Amino acid sequence: MPLSADRKTWYFERLTTLLGTYSKLFVVEVDNVGSKQLQDTRKTLRGKAEILMGKNTMMRKCMKEYVENNPGSPVEKLIECCRGNVGFVFTNGDLGEIREVLESNTRPAPAKVGAVAPCDVIVPKGGTGCDPGQTAFFQTLQIATKITRGQIEMVNDTHLITKGEKVTASEAALLQKLNIEPFSYGLVLKAVYDNGSLFDAKVLDITDEVLATKFCEALKALASLSLALGFPTQASVPHSIVNAFKAVLAVTIELPTYTFDKADLYEEYLKDPSKFAGPATGGGGGGGDAGAAAAEPEPEEEEVEMGGGGDLFGGDDGGGGDY
Fold it and tell me: Which residues, in sequence order, are CB contacts of 106 under 8 Å at separation 6+?
């Protein structure tokens, strides 16, 4: 049923107002989403975001007029998004929070004949609750079965429907017999518009933790490459300094007549490791063997004290291990 002139005027004013008020929005696909489900989503987003649906031709025409009245507006990028059964979710809040709300409002749904499967459907093996008289139905679908305790039992897990394929009448009937609702429908995020930038919704999967992990991996690769090539960079210099300190320390320890301040600690440790073993907890009477045994289970003390070189060149972690 076509909209009245008053209704069209109201819609144009509404969409124009939203485009001027909000700087962020989601382009969402609403296939197989019922009016009750959409209403519940609106209630959940009340005060945080606004949902606007409409005909694609009307949305495109309204956006074109908005761009004509506001030359250079990035809203022009949204015109090409008006394809298919789509709508807009406007917000000025956190996109991640709104995304969680949209993705949480999904409803299970049965498989209808002719519907395109949004995911693979695998029916688990086991009892079906069907009487032996319906064996022919399972044979038609080429499903291996056996009779157990007066009911049909599926022998193996069955890959019934493949994602992207249309549901046939037999497949829909089988799922209905087994009381399985394999699909779930909700607002599917297609694109994100943020202050003039339009990008795929998958970009929101990139969190701060993911960025930090990727940055550290790239930094380690750069440091390794720089060290291998002998080309100093900001990533490899801390490692080069630590390696140089280790080389100088190794030479110094072998020289009986030369030392320097930072090497004294290591030389003292090599001469008498028992000084760094900590207080003994035994009952006494063990002699020298007991003292040596007490020194062995204290490798942490050794590592803490050996970090003296790291304090000078790389912080408390002792040598830029985080680079």
Answer: 184, 185, 186
Q: Which one, of 161, 195, 162, lies nearest residue 77 by Cα?
A: 195
Q: Is the dihedral of CA 157, 160, 162, 164 positive or negative?
A: negative
C-beta separation of 19 from 70 below 8 A: no
Helix (H) or strand (E) holding 17: helix 5-21
Place of tokens 């809203």: 75
Q: From start to end of 124-237, where are the E strands?
A: 126-127, 145-148, 151-154, 158-161, 183-185, 188-194, 197-200
Tell me what the mean pLDDT of segment 3-23 comes to.
87
**In 10 A of CB 186, how many CB atoms?**
20
- d(CA 314, CA 307) in angstroms, rounded, equals 10
How far separated are the first and last CA of the chain, in Å rounded?
64
Residue with the two structure tokens 């956190």? 94
Q: How far apart are CA 82 and CA 193, in angstroms?
A: 13
Structure tokens at 134: 């319906």
Whether the Cβ atoms of residue 122 and residue 157 lie closer than 8 Å to each other:
yes
Q: In this predicted model, what pLDDT tens digit does every residue of 244-274 receive, in sequence order?
A: 888 888 888 888 788 888 888 888 888 777 8
The span from the CA of 295 to the CA of 276, in Å, is 8
- CB–CB of 62/12 below 8 Å? yes
- Give the global pTM: 0.58
Question: What confidence tens digit (pLDDT) does each residue in 166-210 have?
Answer: 888 888 888 888 888 888 888 888 899 988 888 888 888 887 888
The answer to whether 16 touches 62, Cβ cutoff 8 Å, is: yes
